[in-house]
Amino acid sequence: MSGGQGPTVSGLLQEMRARFVEADLDDPATEARILACGLLHLSSTELVTRGSEPVSPGDEAAVRAAIARRLDHEPVHRILGEREFYGLPLRLSAATLEPRPDTEILVDTMLPHVRRLETRLGSLHILDLGTGTGAICLALLRECPQATGVGSDISSEALETARGNAERNGLAARFSTAHGSWFDAIHERFHVIVSNPPYIASSVISTLAPEVKDFDPPAALDGGLDGLDAYRAIAKDATRFLHPGGMIGVEIGYDQRETVTSVFEGAGFSLVEAVRDYGQNDRVLVFEFQH
């Protein structure tokens, strides 16, 4: 480049896209745009309108480091350190699962139930088991101003991340955390329990894409021999922590609708709703317990 000038915004974006195409990534254009926007602090529109502006050496170095990390299979949002979920910007950490768009379906599915209970009861208490970033609970709290929530997790680092996300989104006053496995640290009752638990069979984990198996925490993925350990643990004890008429909403793997339903039915719950994801796979189950 003449006169020792650094690259322009659009030049760097094109280079990133070309490297991603070459590496055969699934969606090189989108990933390059998300990374460029995040690292250069530009909107998608500014990426175009300010395309001819030069990039500072510091920003250029950050982009090149990000390209290397992505080519090493680190997911885009991990590189940026955050991801938006249900309109909330959430920080990620090594101890948290990266919230996926499919999990927003759990929030969408639970909202009408939560709102109905909120209208009937005036206030509502929600428990998010294995809360990670806090995504599910915080999204529900933002939509339901009379609700309070608890996020439980076995990882203290995850809980720190969740508390930071609650603070950042103005929800800290209605969100608290509990450190322990499933119900171990829980000593109160709730109207709604939600969870996106680990549900992948142990033997399958080694076959997952490196983006998942190398970067999402193993404890958030491994559901035991048949992938159902977490559901058994939740179903076994949930009735002791639910108010009468309380509900449970869980995310499931694509082939687990029947097995997870039978686990919860065996514990006295009845299936209220089953919802599919954008790929038409079973994704969310909602159960009710009538005392």
Molecular structure report:
The termini are far apart. 41% of the residues lie in helices and 19% in strands. The relative contact order is 0.11. The chain has 11 helices and 9 strands. The longest helix is centred in the middle third of the chain and has 21 residues.
Could you list some keywords that capture this structure?
single chain, 291 residues, alpha/beta, Rossmann fold, two-stranded antiparallel ribbon, 11 helices, elongated
Give me the Rg, rounded. 21 Å
Might you state the CATH topology name of the largest domain? Rossmann fold
What is the makeup of the main sheet? 7 strands, mixed
Order of helices and strands: HHHHHEEHEHEHEEHHEHEE
Report strand %: 15-25%
Look at the structure and give the mean pLDDT. 91
Quick structural overview:
The protein has 291 residues and is an alpha/beta fold. Helices cover 41% and strands 19% of the residues. It folds into two domains: 2-72, no CATH class; 87-288, Vaccinia Virus protein VP39 (Rossmann fold), CATH 3.40.50.
